From TrEMBL:
<dbReference type="Pfam" id="PF22725">
    <property type="entry name" value="GFO_IDH_MocA_C3"/>
</dbReference>
<feature type="domain" description="Gfo/Idh/MocA-like oxidoreductase N-terminal">
    <location>
        <begin position="2"/>
        <end position="121"/>
    </location>
</feature>
<comment type="similarity">
    <text>Belongs to the Gfo/Idh/MocA family.</text>
</comment>
<dbReference type="InterPro" id="IPR000683">
    <property type="entry name" value="Gfo/Idh/MocA-like_OxRdtase_N"/>
</dbReference>
<protein>
    <submittedName>
        <fullName>Putative dehydrogenase</fullName>
    </submittedName>
</protein>
<dbReference type="InterPro" id="IPR055170">
    <property type="entry name" value="GFO_IDH_MocA-like_dom"/>
</dbReference>
<dbReference type="InterPro" id="IPR036291">
    <property type="entry name" value="NAD(P)-bd_dom_sf"/>
</dbReference>
<dbReference type="GO" id="GO:0000166">
    <property type="term" value="F:nucleotide binding"/>
</dbReference>
<keyword id="KW-0560">Oxidoreductase</keyword>
<dbReference type="GO" id="GO:0016491">
    <property type="term" value="F:oxidoreductase activity"/>
</dbReference>
<dbReference type="Pfam" id="PF01408">
    <property type="entry name" value="GFO_IDH_MocA"/>
</dbReference>
<dbReference type="InterPro" id="IPR050984">
    <property type="entry name" value="Gfo/Idh/MocA_domain"/>
</dbReference>
<feature type="domain" description="GFO/IDH/MocA-like oxidoreductase">
    <location>
        <begin position="131"/>
        <end position="252"/>
    </location>
</feature>
Length: 336
């Protein structure tokens, strides 16, 4: 039973607390945030055993074995380092950090301490993703040529909100761009082996608010195997958030690729159309949310003494690639 501390008290922390309370091999032992009173209220509301006055105090508690890091983006690296220096396993919400130097430092600390450090892309732990990888490896649609993915929703512009505040890492690319980008990376890796594949080229355009954050953006990525990804993120409109993969012998459509329902276990569903044939509907049942599956998978790795994930869950090497590409996406979208 892995004993968790939650570093953060926002909406995603609430989802993870619920996930821990439903997990078979996890226990929600502590919570801390930027304000002690919020941590106390969080603990009482979400069945967390203890609230701490600070993240430092929680990380120093020998009973805490793993820390889920989920504050606003600029605090990810600081709080993760705090936990790692105390020898805690760390599951860090995406993006792991806003700078590559911070990510390399976090990974160095994890290696030195012999602990597990993963970036939280929970959809990678859902059986629907494993089924998608299985289909791609089996050549279900022949040689893959393109992938289209989006993550979008409409939110009223509010410069005080985390989503729109540049000081808090706001903007569509950093907040949600990791989803379609990581999926394109997954498709490229599954189509040519399991190792991360760096695109040969990335181009992007975007629309920017007056305060300097991106409201929406589209990126084109081209992988060495001849796979082109068309990726869109938006905070201004809700678009088609499905995943579409086109191969020389057919197509795959995943209506809900991110399976991100935080309360009810999302059921997987894949539509496979081989050339000249009717669409085949592949149902992928699941009895847990992606967040619970993520927590349980992380706990199983920690129990085995593992210090990295196995594909399709995001590995340390893929985290480096992913965040380098997010930085490039932002630069290209800004015309730099």
């Amino acid at each position: 039973m892995l004993k968790w501390g939650i570093a953060g008290t926002g909406q995603i922390a609430r989802a993870f607390a619920l996930a821990l309370n439903r997990a078979e091999n996890c226990r929600a032992c502590g919570v801390a945030g930027r304000r002690a009173e919020k941590a106390a209220a969080f603990a009482a509301e979400h069945r967390v055993e203890r609230a701490y006055s600070s993240v430092e105090q929680m990380c120093a508690d020998p009973e805490i074995e793993a820390v889920y890091v989920c504050p606003p983006h600029p605090f990810h690296a600081e709080w993760a380092r705090c936990a790692l220096k105390q020898g805690k396993h760390v599951l860090c919400e995406k993006p792991m950090a806003l700078g590559m130097e911070e990510i390399h430092e976090m990974q160095r600390l994890a290696r030195e301490q012999g602990v597990l450090l993963l970036e939280g892309y929970m959809y990678r732990c859902h059986p629907q993703t494993a089924k998608l990888v299985e289909l791609l490896k089996a050549g279900a649609v022949g040689r893959v040529r393109s992938v289209e993915g989006a993550f979008s929703f409409r939110s009223e512009f509010n410069p005080a909100s985390r989503l729109f505040d540049p000081a808090l890492g706001g903007g569509a690319i950093w907040d949600i761009g990791g989803y379609p980008l990581s999926m394109a990376n997954l498709v490229a890796a599954a189509s040519s082996g399991n190792a991360p594949v760096r695109p040969e080229r990335l181009e992007a355009v975007g629309v920017w608010a007056e305060n300097g954050i991106d409201l929406l953006s589209t990126a084109l990525v081209c992988y060495p195997a001849g796979i082109v990804g068309r990726l869109t993120v938006s905070l201004t409109s809700t678009e088609d958030n499905s995943l579409r993969i086109y191969g020389e012998g057919g197509k795959i459509v995943v209506p809900d690729p991110w399976v991100c329902d935080r309360v009810n276990p999302p059921q997987g569903r894949i539509l496979l159309t081989r050339s000249g044939e009717a669409a085949e509907v592949i149902e992928v049942p699941c009895d847990r949310t992606s967040f619970t599956l993520e927590a349980e998978y992380f706990a199983s790795l920690a129990a085995q003494g593992k210090t990295d994930a196995v594909f399709p869950v995001m590995s340390a090497a893929e985290t480096v690639l992913q965040n380098e590409l997010l930085q490039e996406w932002e630069r290209k979208a800004a015309g730099k």
